Amino acid sequence: MLGRDTKRVAMTARERFQYLMNFEPVDRLPILEWATWWDKTIARWRNEGLPAHLVDAGEIREYFGQDCYRQLWISPRKATLPSAPAHGRGIVTSLAEYEGIKEHLYPEAIDVQRAREYANRQAAGNMVVWVTLEGFFWYPRTLLGIENHLTAFYERPETVHAMNQDLLDFLVRMLDVLCAVCRPDFMTFAEDMSYHNGPMVSKALFDEFMAPYYRQIVPKLHGYGIIPFIDTDGRTEDLVPWFAEVGIDGFLPMERQAGCDIVALRREYPRLRIIGGYDKMIMTNGEDALRREFERILPVMRQGGYIPGVDHQTPPGVSLSEYRTYLKLLTEYCDKAAS
Amino acid sequence: MQDLLEQITVCIERGKVNGKSPYPPDMRGQDGADELVSKALGAGVPATDILERALIIGMGNVGQKFSENKVFVPDLLMSAKAMTAAMKHLKPFFESGQAKHKGTFILGTVQGDLHDIGKNLVGMVMEGGGWKVVDLGVDVSAEKFLEALKQNPGSVVGLSALLTTTMVNMEKTVKLLKQHDAKATVLVGGAPLTNEFAKKIGADAYSPDPQGALNYLTDRHSRN
After folding, report:
1. pTM of the model as a whole
2. Calpha distance A231→A251 (Å, rounded)
3. Residue that finishes a domain, picked among A252, A283, A303
4. A3, pLDDT greater than 90
């Protein structure tokens, strides 16, 4: 379905991404590790031959011969914002405390120099630019802490709404600033609102606390030609229709172990864009197992709108040799899917 | 008395903490678990009855619904808050021995892992099921789990991990605990885990959700 009828002409990384995400023919599928690697994985690989001078994830991706992607992250925090006392804890507990720290939030500038540099490479076709924004579930959680955020939906709803309204206003302003310099090809909302059994919150809470803000930002993104994805680990099947209602186009990483079945999802949502979906837990099981996993996802690879990739970060149990085998097969199947 | 116990059950199940709590909206202004447990004790209802005929039932109901994705994490957390408010009144009865826990459950996230929401939910459901919970926190070494088991002989140990980078640390912990006491019961849970992994590392059981862990122990208890 994806392959070109005529002799295939090599595309630039950007052309390949754009055509693929529009379900149009490509020379091959993009070869991409969307997430950076665990420190422990890299440390192991250094002992197994990964050159020590490669530090930046982009450099490592290119060392492995992957397509060139770069990510910008627009943070709503200033450097002066106090840190949380521990992982998962918050820095405010109430609306009054939130108002008290707002001077440390919502910076009015982005890294324009970097955005301009990326825009130049993007214009030459050598780079796909991806921007990450914090989502309307993720962001209040970082301020309130995991448990207080979840109970705030019931006990302090006005606090959650105030944070999300301010976030929305900030994102709209910053998108205009960014897009005056560089228009990303796609974007992800950092959310992580699911776990291995499904969404952490009900559809009713999604409709009340998140959907109204998505309904305002998504048309803005589409207006700039940016494809919005949701980045949420865990089991995401139930979330796909929720986010489809507010205009979201895609999901990553689609963790197999949590039950995500991209083949079944595509049957139900033929235009759903997907990145990831390759079961990281089988990467130490040998080449035959790796090949079987590619065969499982090949039908979706052939349909377009999908970039295969490890469904979260490559575990440190995977050796460099095993990762190279994965890449060899990824290259083979990315070619096969387009032929 | 039965009416009062049923009201307490509803408060636990629906997360009605006290009279001031705005949640749930349709119970606004009504007494919550806090006031009703106090009333029940004042009326002479034995603490054991409150625990077994109201609190455990309410928490069991919400835990079961959570397993079935009929309620979600915020609902379970609100129920746990109501449970905590209720248990505050029962604490003296546990201390005096008039009320008894079903056992002690030592709980922690394994070394290298700082994630605790899954662990905390398990702790809440276990406590709601009548177990005394000893929560060791996050980033807990195998040696620290062993020390806690030595201090609480006969306890069940629950290990949690969220990451593929830390699940491997479970094996060392299970091995150390079993070396100390081959009959020690060790349960494991967390996103990257499977039954196969649990068996491979020598754990007694894997549960995909908190209620599953409680049900496993309840079944085992009823068989013994």
Report:
1. 0.93
2. 6
3. A252
4. no
Please say whether the beta carbons of B139 and B170 come within 8 A. no
∠A312-A257-A286 over CA atoms, to 5°?
A: 80
Q: Which two tokens stand for residue B126?
A: 């276990």
Averaged pLDDT, B124-129: 93
Q: Which residue of B has its CA nearest to A195?
A: B191
Instruction: Quote the pLDDT of residue A1.
Output: 56
Find the CATH number of the domain harbouring A87: 3.20.20.210
- The residue behind tokens 């980078």 is B165
Q: What is the ipTM of this complex?
A: 0.93
Judged by a CB distance cut-off of 8 A, whether residue A36 touches chain B is no
Q: Give the H or E element holding residue A129.
A: strand A128-134
C-alpha span between B74 and B190 (Å, rounded): 19
pLDDT of residue A5 exceeding 60, the answer is: no
Tens of pLDDT along A93-139? 999 999 999 999 999 989 999 999 999 999 999 999 999 999 999 99
Quick one: how many helices (H) and strands (E) in chain B?
10, 5
Q: From edge to edge, which strands make up the β-sheet containing B104-109?
A: B132-135, B104-109, B156-160, B185-189, B205-206
Report the 10 Å Cβ neighbour count for A292. Answer: 13
Assess contact for A159 and A94: CB atoms under 8 A. Answer: yes
- Judged by CB atoms closer than 8 Å, whether chains meet at A40 and B165 is answered as yes
| Residue where the block lists tokens 């993104």 | A221
Q: Catalogue the E-assigned strands of chain A.
A: 69-74, 128-134, 186-190, 194-195, 198-199, 227-231, 250-252, 273-278, 306-310
The residue among A103, A90, A164 whose CA lies nearest residue A134 is A164
> What is the rounded CA–CA span in Å between residue A133 and residue A33?
19
Q: Using the beta-carbon criterion (under 8 Å), do B165 and A315 form an inter-chain contact?
A: yes
Pair (B62, B129) in one structural domain = no
Per-state percent for chain A, helix, strand, coil, to nearest 5: 45, 15, 40
Nearest to B117 among A88, A155, A201 (CB): A88
Q: How many CB pairs under 8 A join A and B?
A: 74
Nearest-angstrom CA–CA distance, B171 and A192: 27
DSSP A140: H
User: How is residue B102 annotated by DSSP?
Assistant: S
* Residues in Cβ contact with A162 at an 8 Å cutoff, skipping those fewer than 6 apart: A95, A98
- Residues of chain B contacting A, Cβ within 8 Å: 15, 21-24, 67, 69, 71-75, 77-78, 81, 114-118, 120, 138, 164-165, 168, 191-192, 194, 208-209
| A201/B73 CB distance under 8 A | yes
Q: Tell me which residue range forms the domain holding B37.
A: 2-96
Domain end (from B96, B115, B144): B96
Rounded Cα distance, B224 and B219, in Å: 9
Q: Nearest CA to A236 among A206, A271, A197, A280?
A: A197
